[in-house]
Each structure stands twice: as structure tokens, then as C-alpha cells.
Amino acid sequence: MTRDERDPLAVFDDDVVSRTAEETGVGADRIRSVARSHQQTVRDLPGVEDIVYEWRRSLPKNPLVERRTEAYFLAVDATVWGEYGDALSLSLEEFDALRALHANQLAATLGSDAAPDDGRLPLVLTRP
Fold first, then answer.
1. For the sheet containing 64-67, what is the strand order?
2. Where do the DSSP E strands lie in the chain?
3. Which domain does 74 fall in, by range?
4. pLDDT exceeds cutoff 60 at 1
5. Total structural domains in the chain?
């Protein structure tokens, strides 16, 4: 991370991480570690801005729920999440906790009714 880059976990509130840990049984430190790895993976290949642009062009439904200076709030197909689960080599519990963190953070930031109810899953990407 360069000096001018935003911390990969900047948009994830500590209380949301703690609540997610309580809900899932995965420790808060482990959730932070997994979330950091996920965010860094997106930054490294192909980059946050590029992947959001690509998804907006290629996915059947526009995934963008809201764009802010600090983050993209998205709703993506389960296949997108599956690719990250595979790439990060997570246990099922860790994978479920990571997805729960994103769902909880999107709801905490944008409101509980912000995520589409069409089967797509919340995904929050911190902008560098």
C-alpha cells in the first residue's frame, strides 16, 4: 500500500466486523485478515476500478448499487463470489463470514433495503 492509498479495510466499520464475528462464529481478527486478503486480491488483479467497469459491461444486471469516494457498493452474481472463494482458498466458514461482512457493511452504510432482492449478493470494494 502506497502512502496515498486508502487502507483496504477503511470502509469496514469495527462494530460491523464484531457483529459479523458474533453472527458467524469466526473471530474478528480472522475476518479482518480474510477481508484484507480479498480486497488486496481485487486491487492486484485487475484493480478495483477496472473490475467494476468490466462487471458493469459484462454481467447480466448492472452490479453497482452506489459509488462513493471511498468505496463501491455492489450486488453481484454468486459466481463472482465463488471465484473469490476459490482464489482465496477459504474454508466454508471463512467464506460465509466474508460474505456476511459485506452484506452487513452494505446494510449498515446504505440501509437494510439497499441490496437488491433478486438473488445477487452484496460486495463492498474499498477504492484505493
1. 64-67, 71-76, 121-126
2. 64-67, 71-76, 121-126
3. 14-126
4. no
5. 1
Does 6 reside within a domain? Answer: no
Beta carbons of 25 and 93 less than 8 angstroms apart: yes
pLDDT at residue 2, as a whole number: 57
- Does residue 67 lie in a domain region? yes
Evaluate whether 98 touches 90 at the Cβ level (below 8 Å): yes
Tens of pLDDT, residue by residue over 48-105, are 999 999 999 999 999 999 999 999 999 999 999 998 988 999 999 999 999 999 999 9
In Å, what is the CA distance from 111 to each residue of 10, 20, 36, 63, 104? Answer: 18, 16, 23, 17, 10
Statement: residue 4 has pLDDT above 60: yes
24's grid cell: 458467524
Burial class from Cβ neighbours inside 10 Å (0-12, 13-18, 19+) for residue 119 reads exposed
Instruction: Give the Cα separation of 60 and 3 in Å (integer).
Output: 37
Q: Is residue 9 part of a domain?
A: no
pTM greater than 0.90: yes
